[in-house]
Write a structure and sequence with these properties.
With 391 residues, this protein is an alpha/beta fold. It has eleven helices and 17 strands.
């Protein structure tokens, strides 16, 4: 089969690799009909994620048709059209029992990314990511083995829904929705969303769904801000033109701040010169720019929700400011399985239209160009969807 493989920073290639096979009774084999490039994939592409190996198959946003099922699979059958969540979760462990699927204790043989780990078990395995998360082959391929198939895949029975309408149930839509829920957004809420990438867009869509009244969106790509303004009615702030976005937000919220902030950027936020030097010297793992703005822009007693991926040390976290303001923090990988059925109903009703963010459609054979365009923000690229089979 054809698959997109990793060979180092900015070196991804579509190659012929062995077809996957069933390895456990609760596995399925999926013929991939659509897959997408995620912002988290760009961390890998830029060489920022450790424990990647040459030849690893990338991709954790995918869907397709079930081709084979293990004898222990009872929740899907051959021929079903399914969307697969990016986390691999057993459904039976301590955390899965609490619907904290991203914290599954049984599916990741890797170390995980916690620095001060002690003897804590690793969280859930991830498709198409570092061997820190299990090294599972991903879905930017024609076929993929899906473990724990009684827990993850969501059947899409409505044939009227296109792949693009439901594909993002795999990651960015539940990630944006969980971020909005963690932010405690409700009718009349005000929120600042840092980052107008795909997760930021889904957070804005979810905030509107939950009744947010005022949404500030902070980014420095004018085309993304313009799109979010038109589609979600956000108040755009270009931080290349506004030196202090948090101050502007404070001024426009009666000098209190927003009810909540959502940091949809993560550890590769555009930081100061000092932070760039510290990261180069491996003295910090993440830029703290977005978090500092989020803390500053949020009112006393408010919430900072962090769906953006962070790792290691952060310079200038300003936890004292968070304490003084009485802020609450909510963060972490998304418990996608928990939200996928609910979000599907919103797609079916037309309340959510995640497919509108797609800007580029390419065959899998052009995946390397898709990564380059998405990474460089060329051609007003918002989201790339790849098709493994040409019709």
């Amino acid at each position: 089969m054809l698959a997109l493989t990793y060979h180092g920073a900015r070196d991804v290639r579509v190659e012929t690799v062995p077809d996957p096979v069933l390895a456990a009774d609760d596995d399925i084999l999926l013929r991939v009909t659509a897959t997408a490039i995620c912002g988290s994939d760009l961390h890998i592409y830029r060489g920022k994620i450790p424990d990647m190996k040459s030849g690893d198959i990338l991709g954790h946003e995918f869907m397709g048709i079930v081709e084979e099922v293990g004898r222990g699979v009872v929740n899907v059958k051959r021929g079903d059209r399914v969307v697969v969540p990016f986390t691999i979760s057993c459904g039976d462990c301590f955390f899965c029992g609490r619907k904290l699927f991203a914290a599954c204790e049984t599916t990741n043989p890797g170390r995980g990314a916690i620095l001060n780990k002690k003897d804590v078990r690793s969280g859930a395995g991830l498709f198409g990511y570092s061997h820190l998360y299990g090294g599972y082959p991903g879905g930017q391929a024609q076929y993929v083995r899906v473990p724990k198939a009684n827990v993850g895949p969501l059947v899409i029975p409505d044939t009227r829904l296109s792949d693009e309408q439901v594909l993002f149930l795999s990651d960015i839509l539940p990630t944006g929705y969980q971020a909005a829920l963690n932010a405690q957004i409700g009718p009349g809420s005000s929120v600042a969303i840092f980052g107008a990438g795909p997760v930021g867009m889904m957070a804005a869509a979810s905030a509107r769904l939950l009744g947010a009244d005022k949404i500030f969106m902070i980014d420095h790509h004018a085309y993304r801000l313009a799109f979010a303004k038109d589609l979600y009615g956000v108040l755009p702030i270009d931080f290349d033109k506004v030196d202090d976005p948090a101050q502007l937000i404070i001024e426009q919220t009666d000098h209190r701040g927003v009810d909540a902030s959502i940091d949809a950027v993560g550890f590769e936020a555009k930081g100061s010169t000092l932070e760039t030097v510290l990261a180069t010297l491996k003295l910090e793992g993440s830029s703290g720019t977005s978090l500092r703005w989020a803390i500053a822009a949020t009112r006393r007693g408010g919430v900072v929700s962090v769906p953006g991926v962070y790792a290691g040390f952060i310079h200038g976290f300003l936890f004292g400011d968070a304490f003084e303001k009485g802020l609450s923090f909510a963060s972490g990988q998304t418990h996608a399985q928990r939200f996928m059925p609910e979000l599907l109903t919103h797609i079916e009703s037309g309340a959510l239209k995640p497919e509108l963010i797609v800007s580029h459609r390419m065959p899998l054979t052009e995946a390397a160009r898709g990564y380059e365009v998405f990474n460089k923000k060329e051609e007003d690229c918002r989201k790339v969807v790849l098709t493994p089979f040409q019709t």
